[in-house]
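Annual report, structural modelling task.

Input specification for the zinc ion complex:
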Amino acid sequence: MHAAAPTPSHCFPADYAQGRARFLAAAAAAGAQLSHHELPGHRGRQGEVLALEAALLPARPEADGRAPLLIVSRGVHGVEGLCGSGCQQHLLLDHELLALARSRGVDLLFLHAVNPYGFSHLRRGNEDNIDLNRNCIDFTAGAPAANPGYAELHGWLVPPTWPPDDAVQQQLNQAQQRLGVAAYRRAVTAGQNSHPDGLFYSGQAPSWSNRTVRERLRTHGAQRRHMAWVDLHTGLGPRGHGEKIHAGRTTQADLLRGRRLWGADVVAAWEGQSASEQVRGPVVGCVYDECPQAEVAAIALEFGTVPYDQFLDALRADQWLHQHPEAPAALAEAIRQGMRDAFYVDADDWRGMVAAQARVAVLQACLGLGS
Ligand SMILES: [Zn+2]
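The model returned the following structure:
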């Protein structure tokens, strides 16, 4: 008999530093091959080192890099790592699940803190205010497509004062009524490259995280024929519900591959079924550039937290704070707490729901990928 299974409540960290320390300990105990990738030029909120860590758990000791590979990543959106780190910890301590992956011949690759700066500083963007899930585009093909809808809204989304005055809020409400909810949300969240100080900013060049993930993919994925990827997120959808959002290319063939692994409830944002908008340049998309030989099934597993308006207001406030470091300490602290609450529900029932759904997604992938 193994020791008692870990309960979700004990797996979720209070902050980045604790999540990282626990991840490194659990990965080492599970026999993982670890690699560290330190973010140069930046430190965390407590002055700590910031790093993306990769932990490979090969199914066989004589692994040759050709077995099916399941990637579990988290923290693409910094602050969302509070949830993802807990889920990964829960998985790494789950001896039965790891044994099942081995028995099916599936190698596991855990990516911890794809955006370590955002995790530590409780921001969604990275050290350059870039949304990593809008940054993995082909910058050599010219400037990314413009998003004029965002440009029109920017001054109201990130107003000069916080909380915003009534006139700003009124303008935003009117814009939402004029555009309709779907078009409004698309304009706000689909990604933009015109406002480096704005929300959902794609950046002007590949970020450090983008380059580091690509390097890990070339190292671990260059010879794989079959791969699957579960990228953990939070913020959108009903509280505690894990929406399986297709994260592969926008083709029916890729969508079907995802549904074969994870079921008919894999939704496609481009079909209007998802709580999320279709985005350009998600991190998962790097796999098609770096491992073109592989058949890949990929989902973002998005766990709901708070209502949409609260989610968006937390991001607006955080963006305002980023530009106003002189803000009173009490307001700054309230804004940071607002970010935490929008992306991580501090309740045992929520932790139990998200850990269980992450486990199911990994289980399904191991069964579908393995032999
Ligand atoms: Zn996210």
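Residues 70 and 108 are 5 Å apart (CA to CA).
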